[in-house]
Amino acid sequence: MKDAQTVALRRARPLLGTLVEVTAHGACEVQLMQAVDAAFDTIALVQRLMSFHDAASDVGRMNRLAHRAAVRVHPWTWKVLRTAQRLARASAGVFDVTVGGELMRLGYLPAAVRSNVDRRARWADVRLLPGQRVRFVRRLLIDLGGIAKGFAVDRAVECLRARGANAGLVNAGGDLRGFGPVPWRIHLRHPAQPGLLLPFADLASGALATSAGYFSRRLRHGAVHTSIIDGRRRIAADATFSASVAASSCMLADGLTKLVVLRGHRACGLVRRLGGRAFILKADDADAKSVSAA
Amino acid sequence: MDVFNNWLLIPAAAVIVAPTCAYATQYLTLEQAQQAIFPGADFTQAFVIISDAQRAEIERRTGVNVRVREQRVWRVSTGGVFVLDEVIGKHELITYAVGLNSDGGVRQLEIMDYRESYGYEIRNAAWRRQFVGKHDGDPLKVDLDIKNIGGATLSCRHIAEGVRRLLALYDVALR
After folding, report:
1. Which of A7, A8, A161, A233 has the fewest CB atoms lying closer than 10 Å?
2. Nearest-CA residue of chain A relative to B36?
3. Test mutation, A7, A19, A189, A196, chain B, max B CBs within 10 A
4. Quick one: average pLDDT of B97-122?
5. What are the angstrom distances between the C-alpha of A249 and each of A158, A178, B118?
6. Structural contact between residues A177 and A251, judged by C-beta atoms closer than 8 angstroms
7. In chain B, which among 93-152 make CB contacts under 8 A with chain A?
8. Cβ atoms < 10 Å from Cβ of A8
9. What is the pLDDT of residue B9?
10. CA atoms of A216 and A228, how far apart (whole Å)
11. What is the pTM of this model?
12. What is the value of ipTM here, to two decimals?
C-alpha cells in the first residue's frame, strides 16, 4: 500500500458469536466505508439465516419442522448444506452437521425446547430436495457452526471486491480470507498458550481457517473435550494441537479444519484431495518452525 | 521451509520473534466512531451518574452487573444518543460505542479498542484499572502492531451483555 492515494479502513463488530474484523484498502474513503458496512451487513444476514439459537432462522426452522415436512431454505443456506454434505460423504461421516444434539448435551448449544432427537440420526438423514428444500428422515438437530462462519467470510470478501476495495481481509474469529496485491501476514496462537502470537505465513490470496480447543476446551467427567464432534463416533475431540487449513474458499477451509482436529495427520491426505492444505501446530512446539505441513 | 511451497501461503519471514503476551488494536478514535455511527451530526457530552436505584433497576432487568457508575454519553444533534462503554472478559478488554436511535433501538455498534492479555495480571483489579483507557506508559509492554490472528475465537458474550445493560440504562436514565 505504497500509493499515497490508498485509504485503509479496519473495523470490528461482534457477529457470529465472535469478533469479526474487516480490513479494506481502496482509493475512496466514502466508498470504502460503504463497502465495509455492506460486508458487515452480509455477515449479519448469514447469522440470521444460520443461527442455531434463532428459531426463525433457516436452521431453526429446519430443526423444528424438517422431520415432518420439507423446509425451503435461502440459496445461501442451501449452498452451505451442499458443501457440508459433500464433506460428510468424503470423510465417511466424520464431518457431520447433525451433531446439534451432542453439542446441546455437552452444553455448547442451549437446550432446545424439544430435544427428543433420534440418536441414530446421521448426515445421510438430511435430504436435499429440488427447489432448495430440505427434509430430515429422522428427528435431528443440525448445527452449521463448523462451516457457516467460513461461508460468511467468503460472502463478505465478495462484497468488498464488488464495492471497489482493491485489497481486503475478513477475519471472523480466526477464520479468515484475504485478497489484493500485497500478502497479509497471519499470526497463529500457540495452542497451549493462546496469548502467544506466532508469525505463521503471508497469505497471498485465499483463505486460512484455524480450529483449536483453547477457548472451548472443557473438563467433563474428568476428560477434556472441545466443541468439535466426530460425527461417526459421536464423541468430542480432545485435541491439544491447533489445526489450520489453507484453501481457496474460507467455507472449505473452515470445514476441513474440523477433520484435522478430529483425525490429526490421518486427515491430511483427504484435506489435500478436497483442495486444502493442512498445518498442525502442536502444544509442545516451541516455535513456528515446527508447524508441520502435509 | 519448502513445506510451505503452496499457491496460497508464503512462510512468514521471521520464523520466531519475541512472542507477545499482550496485544491491542485500535479500530476507531472517539471522533471516528461518532462519525461512523451518526455521520455529519454534532455531539454534546453528558456525564450520566447512575444512582443506586437506577443501578438496581438495570441489574434487575438485565441480570448484568453495573460496575461503573459514570457513563459517558453524548446527545446527538440529529436525534438519539451515542454511548461509550467498556467490557472486561477473562483475557480481553473491549471499548466500544453504541448509537441508539431516539426510540431506544440500537442504530449501530462499533468496536473502538480491543486489548487482550494473558497471565496473572488480568485477575488483579488494580492492574485492570491501569489498563483501562491508557494508551501510553502501560506497565506491561503492549504490542500495538496490527496483527491478523488465526484462531482468535474469543466469545463476544460480554459485549452482548454490555449492550443489554446500555439499553436498560437508556430506558431508566436517558429517555
Report:
1. A233
2. A33
3. A19
4. 83
5. 11, 10, 32
6. no
7. 109-111, 114, 116-119, 143, 146-152
8. 15
9. 64
10. 9
11. 0.86
12. 0.82
